[in-house]
Amino acid sequence: GRYFQATKELLYEEYEYQYQTLFSYFKDNNIDIVIACTSVVGIVSGSMSRNSLNDFLAGMEGIPVITVSGDSDKIPNICYDNKAGIKEGMDVMISAQKCSKIAMVAGPKENLDSIERVEAYKESLAEHGMQYEDRLVIHCDFTEKCIFDVINLFKSVKGIDGVVFANDRMAIGGYEAMKELGLTVGRDVSFMGFDNIEKDINLDPPLASVVADAENIGY
Hints:
This protein has helices spanning 38-41, 48-51, 53-58, 82-96, 112-127, 147-156, 168-181, 214-218, and strands spanning 34-37, 65-68, 77-78, 102-106, 137-139, 162-165, 190-195, 209-211. It is an alpha/beta fold. Helix 4 runs parallel beside helix 5 (112-127) and helix 6 (147-156) packs across helix 7 (168-181). The longest helix has 16 residues, at 112-127. The protein is globular, with a radius of gyration of 18 Å. 38% of the residues are buried. Residues 43-49 have low confidence and may be disordered.
């Protein structure tokens, strides 16, 4: 389930809102515990963990909850190692691929995972002696709808040769943006994503991405 409280107008595909119907099935007589990947459940609203978590938990009365990628001080939480993967990927982009102007397409400003991934981006630049520029970081909604934001970024800042995406869905939008701009991923600009979703292998070229296996973390 995902897209908690999202309206059809906010979603990329018409019927995606139906993902959230799963939450109505959670009852204390048929569920022992809920492991909630909050940043995915609340992907449209920005940061589920801060804006919608109380409403989400209200429907879980009597059921223990553990969050993944949440930031509540009242609920047990498991976090991704956001920084290590971003830094390792940027090391390759800078040292091996010789990228000198790397932009970042981040998630919503209030989303905890996005905040940590932006921090890792900044730290990696500093470790390589590269200057951080505010204009090279844009914030989108974790979906493919970032296409026009990415196009505008490339039109407003010349010379970008690498992009770090805070998740793979935005990177998929980035591929479409490059087509519109007449640029080729892997030749004109290097891309890196985060999540390593199944669609990555079907992109041309396949997307390099940080593995973030929610199922394995839940286990």
